[in-house]
């Protein structure tokens, strides 16, 4: 079973014949304890769903993954250099625990040759990458590394931050105000909150999803 934390990339893998499970957990934003808390405010804002629907959808996917783990199937997790993917990988290692399943990690670079010779391009996340992908790295994850990833996840949960970002390749917890300057820079008298959020996301597509910027604007106002 292939695992990815990006729905668009999962659709590509499925079209290429992979058995794949998408887990769009959006772990770079919100309280990480929400994964077991249906009352967390995150579920009210995410994707426009009701709190109950969002939480239930997440739980259904996790239950599906647990069933796959119980079969002993090999898991292949696709990741890139984003906060969501790094956190998702740590979370997956915790869920696996000491289970005997083989875990293989495929790392996809977010830069590569452009559509025309001599050009170079970058992508914000796996959802922008188009298969087939060149220069991926594939490796099996030992139980000791899975345990270390679990420790890293536990530390991030204890930090109880509202946001997590990759800075110079390191995943760090940051305060909820971290992106406020970007939001202020996009504010115009003629722009609605949705337009401000969209403009902010376009300026930093590897950051939080648009709905998170809309939530933050509501809090600021």
Automatic annotation (TrEMBL):
InterPro entries (alphabetical): DUF1835, DUF3658
Domain named DUF1835 is located at: 7-107
Q: Where is the DUF3658 domain?
A: 139-218
Query: Could you tell me which Pfam families the record lists for this protein?
Result: DUF1835, DUF3658
Could you identify this protein by its name? DUF1835 domain-containing protein
Q: What is the lineage of its organism?
A: Bacteria, Bacillati, Bacillota, Bacilli, Lactobacillales
């Amino acid at each position: 079973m292939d695992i990815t934390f990006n729905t668009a990339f999962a659709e590509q893998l499925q079209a290429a014949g992979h058995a794949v499970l998408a887990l769009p957990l959006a772990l770079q934003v919100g309280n990480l304890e929400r994964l077991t808390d249906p009352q967390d405010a995150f579920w009210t804002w995410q994707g426009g769903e009701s709190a109950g629907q969002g939480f239930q959808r997440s739980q259904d996917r996790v239950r599906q993954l647990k069933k796959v783990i119980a079969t002993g199937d090999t898991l292949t997790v696709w990741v890139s250099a984003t906060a969501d993917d790094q956190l998702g990988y740590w979370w997956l290692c915790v869920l696996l625990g000491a289970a005997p399943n083989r875990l293989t990690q495929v790392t996809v670079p977010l830069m590569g040759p452009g559509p025309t010779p001599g050009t170079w391009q970058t992508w914000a996340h796996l959802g922008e990458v188009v298969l087939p992908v060149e220069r991926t790295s594939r490796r099996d994850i030992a139980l000791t590394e899975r345990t270390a990833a679990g420790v890293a996840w536990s530390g991030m949960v204890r930090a109880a931050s509202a946001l997590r970002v990759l800075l110079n390749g390191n995943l760090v917890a940051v305060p909820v105000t971290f992106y406020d300057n970007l939001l202020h820079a996009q504010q115009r008298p003629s722009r609605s909150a949705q337009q401000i959020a969209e403009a902010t996301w376009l300026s930093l597509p590897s950051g939080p999803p648009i709905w998170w910027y809309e939530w933050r604007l509501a809090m600021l106002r």
